[in-house]
Design a protein that fits this description.
The structure is a single chain. The protein is of the alpha/beta class. The protein has two domains: 140 residues, Rossmann fold (3-Layer(aba) Sandwich), CATH 3.40.50.2300; 131 residues, Response regulator (Rossmann fold, 3-Layer(aba) Sandwich). Helix content is 49%, strand content 18%. The strands form three sheets. The chain has a six-stranded parallel β-sheet with strand order 2-1-3-4-5-11, sandwiched between helices. Strands 7-6-8-9 form a four-stranded parallel β-sheet, sandwiched between helices. It has a two-stranded antiparallel ribbon with strand order 10-12. Helix 10 links the parallel strand 8 and strand 9.
Length: 322
């Protein structure tokens, strides 16, 4: 019995003393959490659009080169108008307790309430590509910085290049993006700035919601209804691809000029051979990176809120691709 008690007593004493070790153990766990890398969620529009797949690749490359600084989650929606899915992604990332959300919103207004909830939960939110509606943000009482190009300026550059190839009074048509998206609105305005200055006649302006197949159908109808049509101005390159196919099907290659916006790789060969006159490069591979860097800087500084950052947008023509 004495031997048994000699063996048990040290164990009993250890169990009695263990609670006193609790605070130091909790402190160690807290210290590990504090040193954890921030997790950034990139939420984009449709990954079926080459522009956003390029954006995703650029973000992944940047993270791999800075893997000691942050972790990355990449998300996209099925199509350009799937607002419900994009809101669901925001909610999922908040529930996951990511450090920051970098978002290219499918709509400039509809996602604002979800982003407000994200900020309230302590998530740093950065808006890229398509700027959120300033009035809606104001009414919601939230300030979310925009990191991206001046879309109106980019579209005006493309429009000016087209106008230089046309005559005053020539008939032209615009194929718009999603009409509730700020970047679509700005690109239309940029096109109109250039066309108005050049004295062109806009005979039609319709939305193809950023999608190639819809643009193809709309362009075909525009060509059929306006026999003197001289140009199609497309608010992104996916729609320009659809417009080029419609021009070819109508037997008007070389007679109807096409311009786009985004400088995706699929459009570059068409610019080189003349099927597309020009596009604008907003550097999609870097656009998410600009947003991620902004988010990391704000996380480091412990701040959120105002402070926009304009990023480059450049005219691309056959001459610039040589």
């Amino acid at each position: 019995m004495a031997g048994f008690m000699q063996r048990v007593m040290p164990l009993a004493m250890l169990l009695i003393l263990m609670p006193a070790c609790g605070p130091s153990n909790e402190g160690a766990v807290t210290g590990q959490a504090d040193s954890k890398k921030p997790e950034v969620a990139l939420i984009m529009k449709s990954l079926a659009n080459e522009f956003f797949s390029t954006m995703a690749q650029g973000a992944k490359k940047h993270q791999s080169e800075h893997s000691d600084q942050y972790d990355l989650i990449v998300n996209g929606i099925k199509n350009e108008t799937d607002l419900g899915q994009q809101v669901a992604l925001i909610e999922q990332m908040v529930a996951k307790k990511v450090s920051a959300i970098v978002i290219a919103p499918a709509d400039s207004k509809a996602v604002v309430p979800a982003l407000k909830r994200a900020e309230k939960a302590g998530v740093v939110v950065i808006n890229i590509d398509n700027q959120l509606d300033a009035e809606v943000l104001k009414k919601a009482g939230v300030t979310i910085p925009f990191v991206g190009p001046d879309n109106r300026k980019g579209a005006r550059l493309v429009g000016d290049a087209l106008v230089a190839r046309l005559e005053k009074g020539d008939q032209v048509a615009i194929i718009e993006g999603v009409q509730t998206a700020f970047n679509a609105q700005q690109r239309k305005l940029g096109f109109e700035d250039a066309l108005g200055k050049g004295g062109m006649k806009i005979v039609s302006s319709q939305s193809a919601q950023w999608e190639m197949e819809k643009a193809n159908r709309i362009a075909a109808a525009m060509i059929s209804e306006n026999t003197a049509l001289k140009a199609l101005l497309c608010a992104n390159d996916s729609m320009a691809l659809g417009a080029v196919a419609a021009v070819k099907a109508a037997g008007k290659s070389g007679k109807i000029l096409v311009v786009g916006f985004d400088n995706i790789s699929a459009i570059q060969s068409m610019i080189k051979d003349g099927r597309v006159l020009a596009t604008a490069d907003q550097h999609g591979g870097q656009l998410a990176v600009y947003g991620i860097e902004e988010a990391l800087g704000r996380l480091s500084a412990g701040k959120n809120g105002a402070g926009n950052r304009e990023t480059p947008v450049d005219l691309i023509t056959a001459d610039s691709l040589k």
